[in-house]
Each structure stands twice: as structure tokens, then as C-alpha cells.
Amino acid sequence: MNLFDKVSTGLKGFDQVIDHLRFGDNVVWQVDTLKGYKDMVHSFAESARTENMRMVYIRFARHEPVLDGRCDKVYHVDASKGFESFAIEIHNLIKEEGRRVLYVFDCLTDLLEYWHSDLMIGNFFKATCPYLYELDTVAYFAIMRNCHTYSTIAGIRETTQLLLDLYQISDKTYIHPLKVWQRYSPTMFFPHLIQDQEAVCITSSADASELFTSINRGEIRLDYWNTIFNNAKSMLGAPHEEQETLKKQLMSMLIGSDSRMFKLCDRYFTLRDILAIASREIGTGFIGGKSVGMLLARKILEADGGARFASCLEPHDSFYIGSDVFYTYIVQNGWWTLRIRQKTPEGYFKYAAELKEKLLHGTFPKDIQEQFIQMLEYFGQSPIIVRSSSLLEDNFGNAFAGKYQSVFCVNQGTPQERYEAFEQAVRTVYASTMNEDALTYRLKRGLAQKDEQMAILVQRVSGDQHGDYFFPHVAGVGFSTNLYVWDESIDMNAGMLRLVFGMGTRAVDRTDGDYVKIVCLDNPLRNPPMSEEDQKKFSQHRLDLLSFTRNALESKDLGEVLFLPLKTEKELFASPDYVALARMRELGYRDFRMPYLLDFRKLLTKTRFPAIMREMLALLSKAYDYPVDIEFTANFKDEAFKINLLQCRPLQTKGLGKTVTIPELKDVKDCFFSGKGNFMGGSVRLSIDYVIFIGAGAYLKLSEREKYEVARLIGLINRAMKGKNAMLVGPGRWGSTTPSLGVPVHFAELCNMKVLCEYASKKEGFMPELSYGSHFFQDIVESGIFYVAIFDGYQDVIFNPDRILTAENLLTTFAPESGRFADVIHVAETVGMELYSDIVTQRLLCR
């Protein structure tokens, strides 16, 4: 060992015991008092000054400084910002300081005040120490004895180079080395009495026994998190004010910092409620926005609804995987450095794919695995769903709708098979944090550098077994305010539903080739604009369900499922299709079942279901003092039903805007399009700089590969339109995954547009979908994009594509290599064009 590779503790005798400190060493002192650590730090600092070595002090605790005026630099780092921000800031300052620097850290135990979790202190140490080692530093840390779990100490012991017990008894100081990496002597691991610069080895059994019997070794400790919640149970009989104070402390640990959602939770939750939530948490940390929204909505209905909803609400027995488990998974699998690289502006997208792949293949700590097993034993073979519940999700201003994944576990097979499927479902949700759409969403909304720990909500799937399948009778999403109005008689404040038969996956996604039931709750039988013959075509024909035999989520034709034993009458959901019946007879068919049309007519007219949904939405909106949207299921027994409220969040929406005067048209050819209703975005008057128009006929002639090429070109043009007022106009459904139904763009490929139009083309078979409430439409609303559906050929609708197609096509200006698609994509500069809409009169004009 080269003399220059050795560093002194400042205690010459102890240097001889451990053969000096070496560059790369992390040194952890277990102490009973801060004074003991402070004494060791001062000796270390004096030696550093003598040897002219650079020393840096990392300050984050409220305790008194352990190093005064004996270092080159002091960094103050705010631990209250959360684990990720704290750990990344320290990583970056270590990087900035460079190699062969000496460090002193405040006592790590004080991080419990901010993070309330032993687990996270261990994670911080495991994330930071390898980087300090890599840069050949020497770093001092302290932890208070008997304040941490054995697993935390074991993790620190495994990671650090030196673990030293420090005792101060009767004015005597003892150091007992527990771990000294890559060094050994016959007496190194005996306790040593420190006398000035000397270290006297205590080898006598009598002396050693006397020393250790005077030391309090402590009892087995729970994680600090569990200790707090266990102690809180004894306060349930305390005076109300004391309970409220404690409740707020526990809420800050489970729900997050003071915010609008926090205030709502404080208003409705009791201390008993918070303890009940904590009792169903796996790991530690926040339970995330989706879990909070679901729990809060249920509590509002219980507290403010009286007995109105008690008989028709299905109870829940959900579990919550705390957000700390997400970081533990990253740190303990050795991916923290990669995570830090991905969080930088230059690495944000560059390293996402690599991190995503790793997140799909990691292992969980043993104690977390055991908690997973106990939860699965509780659910037995009931199907469950593993849902993202990130810190920012479902909050005021950021819905993250559809950005992260949810995974159904049909939960069939042996216990080991069911466990492995569940574990992979958790990994899949974690990996979805690195999805391009999620990253783009965060970046666009200024959230790229915020902590976005991923908690998880595990719910029992609502429904029942029907033959070999499991599904709810109906599911959907509901909105307290109907922002998509196609008829001036619609009461916007009555709300609306997107209703489907079977699993709710079809209600939140724009399901290709299928349509959901749009229900205006002021008049549930009112249909969106379409002709009678179109009602069957634009209805639901397939449903999603869980297959017990295949142990997977599947889609089935309605006819295959409607005649299963549904445990209620199928006529609640479907009506006999006499038109189809007559047609089949005309064609000579003899052996067939009665065809049905999924119109929910009896459910909407003969049950209290629409009235209850309207009341629920109104009550939740009143409590939130804001429009809300919910996800729900409902299961029927005769005409009685149980509604399972799965999710509730503030409805992301622009204001309606001031009334706009619509200019009168002298000639129908003077406008690009005009109509009544079928738009979303309030009242506007907006100048349009460019229109990007996709021709239905030319698009339909393309091969499937070429259709995808068109989608990528739209993304290229979208980037060029940033900062401009651009309108994107296309046939059918934007964002379809079936290219024959519309251009298969991702939302990130049209996010810079100010106006998005979908137009119907009966000849080519394209049809917009009134899919307000789908994840795609949530993106549109949150981004402030004005939406229009143009039903060409319908009453009151004017549509003149030639206003665009006769202008010069600037496609190759924005995408030079795209000339072969000039007959498909037409980019026109539209100086002087304006879009007008008025929400009161429901009139719309673009000229």
C-alpha cells in the first residue's frame, strides 16, 4: 500500500489498528450520542487540515453542526424534498467536487424526520456510497445505535467499507471495529480504549465482558414507519384536537405534502381512516394519487350522501404498495446510477429504454416478497388488477390518464405461478414510468425533474364468474360536467357516462372498430348525431373479459357472451335487433339465435342506475368544488345493483370562455367548415396559421406500412408547428391503433397542434368517435387542444376541403423526404383563417 493512498482518522493509535483509512472508504459510526460522532469528526478534520486535504461537509439535519470552520466547503441539502431529489443533488455535488475529497455527513438517523422510513435511509446509503468509492473519497457517516432495523444495519454493513461501534462510558471512549474491508490483524476486531492518540486493545475476557454488559444492545426494532403507526393506535381515544394533529402528521406520510387534495382528505378522513389505510400498505411511503382519489371519493359519498348510496356501493378491500418500494427496487438492483443519468436533460430519453428493460427484470427484497405472498393469500384466486398510482397522478392539474400501465392478474394456477404473475405485473407498472408517452407528458408539463415515485394500487377485480369468464355487467367512466355537447338542449351540468358491457378497458381507450355508449344523464336515451341505420354500426360489438381457462384478458364477440348465465336478465343491457332478425330471415338463415343490439335501454329507463350516477357525480363535484371524472363498474341482480367506485379525480378542463359572436356566412363556400355542436374546448376565436389535411381516399389506398409512415410524418410536422397556430384535420379517429380507421399517431406526435379535427367520410367508411373521457381525449383537454368532429353530410354541417386543397402544398418544406405522400398530406398556410365557437349557441365556424 502506497503511503499516499493512506488517510488518517486523526487518531494515530487507531490508524495502526485498522491500518489507516484508504481512498474509497466509507466509514459508518454507530453512536449513542451526537457528541461521540462530533469528537471523531474533529480528529478527522484536524488531520485533513494538517495534510492539506480538501474536506467537504454535507449538512441536512436539524442537529447542531458536527463540523465548525474546519472544512473547505459546506453544502446545505434539503431532505424534505424527497429521497430522489435529495440523493440526486448529493450525487451531483460529489461529481462536481471530483476525486480524492474527504466528506463528513450529518447523522443519517435524522433523515427519519423527513422520510419516516429506515428503508429509505438504507436506500440512500446504498445509492451514494458506491459513487463515493468510485471517486476515491473518504466519507464519514453516523447512525444512532438502537434506532434502526436489523435489515437497515445489515444493508449498511454490506455496502460500507468500515463499520465502527463508538461507545463513551464514564468519560472513556471505546471503538469496536465491526467491519474493516480488505484489512485484517489478529486484534483488529477487539474493542479498543482510546487514550489521547493511543488505542489500547481490550483482549481480556473479563474486561471485554464488563464493557459489553454495561452497553444497552436494544431490542429488535420495527421500521420507524411501523413504530409511528403502531404508536398512533393508542391515540384513538385521545381528545379530538390531539387526534387531528396526529392525523395530519400521518397523512403527510401517506398522502403527501400540504395541497388541495391534502385539504380535502383532511376534511373527510379521521385518524381511524388513516390507520385503516396504513394497515393495508405494503412497504412504506406514499400510496399515490389514484389510491387517494378512490379512497377520498368513497369517503365523500359515505359522509355527505347519508344513506342514499349505502345500499348500492360495493365495498373495496384494496392494498397499496408504497412508493418507497419503487426506489428500493431500483437501488437494490444496482440501477441508481442509470436512474440519475436518465434524469438529466441529455439522458431523459436516451437512457429510458435501457432503464425500462432493467425494470422488467429485477428482484424484490425478501421482506417485500413476503408481504406480496401474504396479500395474494388474502385474495386467493380472485382476479386482481395491479394499477399505477404515482405521486402526481389524478391530482388537480395532472391526470396522467393512460400514461402508466395497469395489469390484470386473472390469478389462476399454483401459488408459485400466481406469485410470479403478480410480481411481473408490478415490474410492468414500474417499467411504464419509462414509456415515451409518459416521459413526453411529464416534460411538456414541466414535471421532468420532479420526484415521481410510483406507488401501486392493487384492487380485487369487480364482477362475477359467468361460465369460464369473469367480468362486471357494466363499466365505464363518468363526468360531472359534459363538455362534449352536440345538442343545445343538453344540460352540461347533469354529467355524462361512457358505458360498456364487460370490463371497463373499452371505456377508457379508443377501442378500434367498436364504440361505447354515450349517456347524457339529463336524458339517458338521447343519442349522439347519427342516423337510425348507423346506431347498430356505431355501438359496442365486442367486450373485454378475463378468461379463467386461458388465464388472460381476452376480447369476445357480444354474441358469444350474451347467452352465458349472466345472473341477471340480458335485456337490461341489450335489446332484440328486429331489423337484423328480418334480414337474416330474408337471407334464408333458419338456425340462429335472436340478434341483440347493445343499447342499455332497459338499464337506462327501468332502473335507478342513471339517477344514482348523476347524484354521485354531483355530490363528488360539490365536495371537490370542481368538475370530476370517475371510473366505475356495476353488477346487477334483477334490477338491484352494486356500483364499485374505482377511481375519482379532478376533471382536467379549460374554462368555457367568454361568449363569441359568430360571423354570418353569405355563401356556404366561404368557409372551411361549419356546424352545430360536436366540438370541445369552450368558446374561442382563434387565428389559424397552418392546416395539415389528410385526404381520406388517398390515405385509404396506402399499404398498412405506408399508413404508419404517414403517422410518423405527422410527428415530424408537429415538431415544426411548435409555437404556431396549426390545425390537424384527418379522417376517422386520430390515435387509432388500426390504421384503416384513422391515422395511428401517438399523442406526442400531435401535441403541438392548437386544433384537432376528425371528419366522417361515409364513402371510405371513416367515422369520428365521440370519445370524450378516453385517455386520448384527456390528453387533448389537458393540453388545451380544441377538438372538432365534422360529420360531413349531416344536417347543419358544411365541409369544404377544397379551401385547403387548392392552396399550395408545403409538405416538403417541413418534411423534405416526403414528396411521395403529397396526395395524402396537404400542408397549407392559411393567413387570415379564423376558428369561432360559442358554447352557448353551440355554433362553430372556421373560415
Describe this structure in words.
The model has no long low-confidence stretch (mean pLDDT 89). The strands form seven sheets. Strands 5-4-6-7-3-8-9-10-11 form a nine-stranded mixed beta sheet. It contains 29 helices and 36 strands. α3 packs parallel to α5. The chain has five domains: 3-213, 3-Layer(aba) Sandwich (Rossmann fold), CATH 3.40.50; 224-279, no CATH class; 285-460, 2-Layer Sandwich (Dna Ligase, domain 1), CATH 3.30.1490; 464-650, D-amino Acid Aminotransferase, Chain A, domain 1 (2-Layer Sandwich), CATH 3.30.470; 668-846. It has 847 residues and is an alpha+beta fold. The protein is elongated.
Strand content: 15-25%
Q: Biggest sheet, in brief?
A: 9 strands, mixed
Structural class computed from helices and strand pairing: alpha+beta
Arithmetic mean pLDDT = 89
Number of helices: 29
> What would you give as the CATH superfamily of the largest domain?
P-loop containing nucleotide triphosphate hydrolases
Q: If classified by CATH, what would the architecture of the largest domain be?
A: 3-Layer(aba) Sandwich
Number of strands: 36
Shape: elongated
- Alpha carbon gyration radius: 32 Å
Q: Level of helix content?
A: 25-40%
How many structural domains are formed by the residues? 5
* CATH level 3 topology of the largest domain: Rossmann fold
Contiguous uncertain segments of 5+ residues: none
Highest CATH level, the class of the largest domain: Alpha Beta
The order of strands across the largest sheet is 5-4-6-7-3-8-9-10-11
Domain Pyruvate phosphate dikinase AMP/ATP-binding: 287-662
Pfam family, one: PPDK_N
InterPro entries: ATP_grasp_subdomain_1, PPDK_AMP/ATP-bd
Keywords: Kinase, Pyruvate, Transferase
